[in-house]
Amino acid sequence: MYRGLIITTLTIVLTIIAYLFGSVSAAIITCKLMGLPDPRTVGSNNPGATNVKRFGGKKAAAITLFGDMLKGFLPVILALGLQSNELTLALVACAAFLGHCYPIFFGFKGGKGVATAFGVILGISWPVALLMLLTWLLIAYGLKISSLSALVTAVLAPFYFWWLEGSIILISMGSFISIMLIWRHRSNIQRLLQGEEK
């Protein structure tokens, strides 16, 4: 009984830590340190690497991208280091991702979650992350549309988990993140359908 209580408590604590960690906006912090405008007020008003690149250049975008990936990767690695089970890993991954999308420190208005999703999946399964990266690069290179690359990758992610991991919990986690990514890109989908997406 005590062991089960400890595991449950640890899961809750790790999930909360992951959400708080995910709520730290790499885009906003990077722009502030580099003397750039708040990404929520310029461009697409999205605090993510793609928008930062539009007005801040490649260096600022690269730092933002790395930071967003790291805040998804580190909570998962912490959970793995504490020998957490798959359910805990899945909850931690989803919490970090949701922290980025709905950050408590920034009025619950965050980015679209692509880099953070990649970070959590990289921590859980590097083969799945590698396939996702290759998918994104292939679409991005061929069509030159970042949002479409993210959407195709999001749709395929659950299938990659099914193919390489076979865990119902991880497939469910991948499906949840995939659905959320599609929802966060709904304005991009509308522009794609209208032929207006950059």
Write a structural description:
By secondary structure, the protein is mostly helical. It has one domain (2-194). It has nine helices and no strands. The chain has helices at 2-22, 26-33, 49-81, 86-101, 114-124, 126-143, 146-164, 168-184, 186-194. The longest helix is centred in the N-terminal third of the chain and has 33 residues, at 49-81. The protein is globular and about 45 Å long. The termini are far apart.
Brief summary:
The protein is mostly helical and 198 residues long. The protein is 77% helix and 0% strand.
Sequence-ordered SSE layout with sheet pairings:
Blueprint lengths: L1 H21 L3 H8 L15 H33 L4 H16 L12 H11 L1 H18 L2 H19 L3 H17 L1 H9 L4
Number of helices: 9
What is the end-to-end distance?
Answer: 56 Å
Would you identify the regions where 5 or more consecutive residues have pLDDT less than 50? none
* Beta strand count: 0
Q: In which range does the helix fraction lie?
A: over 70%
The helix/strand series, from N terminus to C terminus, equals HHHHHHHHH
Radius of gyration: 17 Å
Which structural class best describes the helix and strand composition?
mainly alpha
* Binned strand content: under 5%
What shape does the CA trace take? globular
Largest sheet: none
Which whole number gives the mean pLDDT?
A: 90
Number of domains: 1
Task: Supply the key terms.
mainly alpha, 9 helices
